[in-house]
Specification:
Layout: E1 6-9, H1 12-25, H2 31-43, E2 54-60, E3 63-70, E4 76-78, H3 83-95, E5 102-106, H4 107-121, E6 124-136, E7 149-152, H5 158-172, H6 180-190, E8 193-197, E9 203-209, E10 216-223, H7 233-247, E11 252-258, H8 262-271, E12 273-285
Parallel strand pairs: 4-5, 10-11
Antiparallel strand pairs: 1-2, 2-3, 3-4, 5-12, 6-11, 6-12, 7-8, 8-9, 9-10
Helix pairs in contact: 1-2, 3-4, 5-6
C-alpha cells in the first residue's frame, strides 16, 4: 500500500466532508471520533489543548477505509486498520517527523500500529490500559436502589462538578478537555450530568453523557468520591442516565470500562450493558 493513500489535514471541515459518512456508518465503534469532532466543531479547535488538531483519512477506490484524529498533546486515535494499513500510516507519520505520545484504538489495531511505530521510529511502547466498549441491551435498574434520588446537575452545582471532573481526570490519567470548566459548562447546558443525591440532599455520585450523535450516546464519566464508594451510588446514577439517554431518542447507549476494574465491569453488565469489542491504549517513549 502506498503511504500517499492517506489524506492528512488540519481542517476539520475537510475531514468531516471526507470521513463523516464513514464514521456515522458504525456509530458504536466510532463513538469517540464522532464525539470529539462534534466537540471541536461546536466548542472550538483548542478545547482539548493548545495544539492544532490533526486528522487523516485512508481513501481507496473512491471509498473511505479508515480515519484517525489527534488533539495534541493527547494520543493518536485510530479506527480499525489492517496491519498493512497500520504500517503505511506509521511510515507516513514517521517520515513527517511526528512525535506521538501514544495510540488509542481497538485492540488489534493498537497492537499493529504500536509494532509498526516501534519499527519505523525506534520508540519504546508500554501498554497503558485495556478497555472494553459496552452497548446497553435491556436496562435493568439496580434493586434495591441505594438511599436517595437522581437529580440533573444545574448551574448551582458548577463548582462541585469542576472539582469532581478534575478528580476523575486525575484518577484515570487519560486525555481530557483542556479545562474542567469547559466540560462542565457544556454538560450543564445540555442537561448531561445526573447526580445520585443522598436523602439529605448531598450529591454522592455522578454520571455524565455525551450529546446524541448518529443515534448514539456514550455514558461518561461515572464518578464517586473514594470515601463514598461501594454503596451502589454509581450504579444508580448510571442506570438513571442510561434511562434518560434512551428517553431522549438514542438508538444506542454506550460506555467504556477499564478491564483492570472487575467491579465496574460487573456492575455495568448487571445494569444491562453487553460487550462490543476491546480497545487498548499504548504510551510511546524514546529509545
Amino acid at each position: 500500500m502506498r503511504t500517499d493513500d492517506w489524506h492528512l489535514t488540519q481542517d476539520l471541515d475537510d475531514f468531516l466532508a471526507r470521513a463523516g459518512s464513514f464514521l456515522r456508518s458504525q456509530p458504536a465503534l466510532h463513538t469517540v471520533p464522532l464525539a470529539v469532532t462534534e466537540t471541536l466543531r461546536t466548542r472550538g479547535r483548542h478545547v482539548y489543548g493548545e495544539g492544532t488538531p490533526e486528522f487523516g483519512v485512508l481513501e481507496r477506490d473512491g471509498a473511505v477505509r479508515a480515519s484517525f484524529f489527534r488533539t495534541p498533546p493527547h494520543w493518536l486515535n485510530l479506527t480499525a486498520l489492517t496491519p498493512e494499513e497500520a504500517d503505511s500510516l506509521a511510515a507516513r507519520l514517521a517520515a513527517l517527523g511526528q512525535r506521538l505520545p501514544g495510540v488509542n484504538a481497538d485492540r488489534d489495531t493498537a497492537a499493529a500500529f504500536t509494532e509498526a511505530w516501534q519499527r519505523h521510529t525506534g520508540a519504546t511502547a508500554t501498554l497503558r490500559q485495556r478497555q472494553r466498549l459496552y452497548r446497553l441491551g435491556t436496562l435493568t435498574v439496580p434493586a434495591p436502589a441505594p438511599p436517595g434520588v437522581p437529580r440533573t446537575a444545574v448551574e448551582a452545582d458548577r463548582a462541585l462538578l469542576i472539582r469532581w471532573y478534575a478528580e476523575f481526570s486525575a484518577a484515570i490519567g487519560m486525555g481530557t478537555l483542556h479545562g474542567a470548566d469547559e466540560w462542565v459548562d457544556a454538560r450543564i447546558e445540555q442537561g448531561g450530568v445526573t447526580f445520585w443525591e443522598a436523602p439529605d440532599g448531598t450529591p454522592v455520585a455522578m454520571a455524565g453523557r455525551t450529546p446524541r450523535i448518529a443515534g448514539q450516546i456514550r455514558v461518561a464519566p461515572v464518578y464517586t468520591p473514594a470515601h463514598l464508594r461501594g454503596r451502589g451510588y454509581a450504579g444508580a446514577a448510571t442506570a438513571e442516565i442510561s434511562r434518560t439517554a434512551l428517553a431522549s431518542g438514542a438508538r444506542e447507549v454506550l460506555l467504556f470500562t477499564d478491564l483492570a476494574n472487575p467491579t465496574s465491569n460487573g456492575l455495568y453488565q448487571r445494569i444491562g450493558y453487553r460487550a462490543v469489542t476491546d480497545f487498548a491504549v499504548y504510551d510511546f517513549g524514546t529509545a
